[in-house]
Amino acid sequence: MRGDGVRVLIVGGGVAGLATVAALRGWGATIDVVERASGPTHSGTGIYLTGNATRMLDVLGLRESVADVAVEITRQRSANQRGRRLFDIDVAALWQGVGPCVSMPRAHLHRALLAGVGDTPIRWGRQPVALLAEGDRVAVEFDDDSTERYDLVLGADGVNSTVRRLAFDGQAARDLGQYAYRWVAPRVDDEPVWSVQLGRGRQFLTIPISAEQTYCYYNDGPVADRPGWRDELAATFTEPVATMLKALDYDDSTLHAGPNQEVVLDSWSRGPVLLIGDAAHATSPNMAQGAAMALEDAVVLASSLATADSVADALRGFEARRRPRANWVLSQTHRRDKATGLPPVLRDLVLRRLGEQMFRSNYGPLFAQP
Length: 370
Ligand SMILES: Cc1cc2nc3c(=O)[nH]c(=O)nc-3n(C[C@H](O)[C@H](O)[C@H](O)COP(=O)(O)OP(=O)(O)OC[C@H]3O[C@@H](n4cnc5c(N)ncnc54)[C@H](O)[C@@H]3O)c2cc1C
Known about the structure:
The protein is of the alpha/beta class. The chain has a domain at 7-71 and 106-173 and 262-341: FAD/NAD(P)-binding domain (3-Layer(bba) Sandwich). The chain is built from twelve helices and 19 strands. The protein has helices at 15-24, 51-59, 63-67, 91-94, 106-115, 162-167, 229-236, 241-250, 278-281, 290-307, 311-340, 344-363, and strands at residues 7-11, 30-35, 46-49, 71-72, 75-80, 85-90, 102-105, 122-124, 128-134, 137-142, 147-150, 152-155, 174-186, 193-199, 202-208, 213-220, 256-262, 269-270, 273-275. The strands form four sheets. It has a seven-stranded mixed beta sheet with strand order 6-5-14-15-16-13-17, with helices on both faces. Strands 8-2-1-12-19-18 form a six-stranded mixed beta sheet. The chain has a three-stranded antiparallel beta sheet with strand order 3-7-4. The protein is globular and about 60 Å long. The structure holds flavin-adenine dinucleotide. Flavin-adenine dinucleotide (FAD) is lined by residues 11-17, 34-37, 47-49, 127, 156-158, 162, 180, 182, 260, 277-279, 285, 288-292, 294. Residues 11-17, 34-37, 47-49, 127, 156-158, 162, 180, 182, 260, 277-279, 285, 288-292, 294 line the site of flavin-adenine dinucleotide.
């Protein structure tokens, strides 16, 4: 079907929302975007995109705009907490033919996605407060007391989605029992390597995200922000932990902290209201698949709408196509969390022997087109 005469509301101007605007360009629908934040984000930490994510940026015509600022990551290296190597993957070779693996400041990805939106208006500082079914349409009440009617409402508003709360009986995200700290520190070497140290129930990760910057990620067990976390981190892992932590003494403005959560739903739609991205299927970040899944959702949704006879058929087709992949990522993130949570001696033995094989099997099905 063509989108002429169809009114679409996208709630959330993050990865899924902005990529969907880009994917729907030329379809003919009238698209409104509302974003709770008051304007484009200039802050944040880093993001790592695997080959299936950059393949989608290519489809959306956005690869060039991130290529200027991105670091191409060639290897992913895993070590234990004493810095002893467990396994090391040539990810440039692994994802060959799919897309490069790249990292960058989150704000750069956001800027590139915003550039793909063209002249579609974004209403910043706005959010829905009520969704009311009216036959095939939805009446959406916003927090400025205005009400508009839409043929399709997309909840692209992240892991703690308001659309999900309003339209899906309040189904909430689940805490994974991990609390993550993220910050940006100066870059200390030239290697384009994603590098993790594994401790028991905790991990410390560094990724270069520009010529000058390294993105640091640390997660530990209790789901709470604890004052002693820096000392614990420094005591648990080897360099470059101490160096990376020192950066926070001078400037902690990039520090972000929060629980890792997942979302598991029986269905992603209620009538013409559809959840995409983290709102539908957030997982632990341990496979770095969140942005990739959001970008794939955008591209597959646009294709489902273009080839179906009605919005309802398109949403059914979308979910049938996306479910197996989202379920796969969910199951593999559980598998990874289980492996890294093993007692250290056993974990090291397993990962030295099987780490590379497990890594390849985690990602294998994602090489195919979504
Ligand atoms: C610690 C951590 C590290 C991660 N690292 C990576 C990584 O390296 N690589 C990767 O691919 N993924 C990573 N992810 C996951 C990734 O960030 C998400 O999967 C991805 O951002 C999902 O995109 P989204 O558009 O669904 O949600 P988001 O990017 O969260 O966007 C949601 C948008 O909706 C807006 N919004 C929220 N509520 C409302 C509302 N009520 N009304 C209007 N707007 C609203 C928000 O302001 C936001 O702009 C990580 C996640 C975590 C927690």
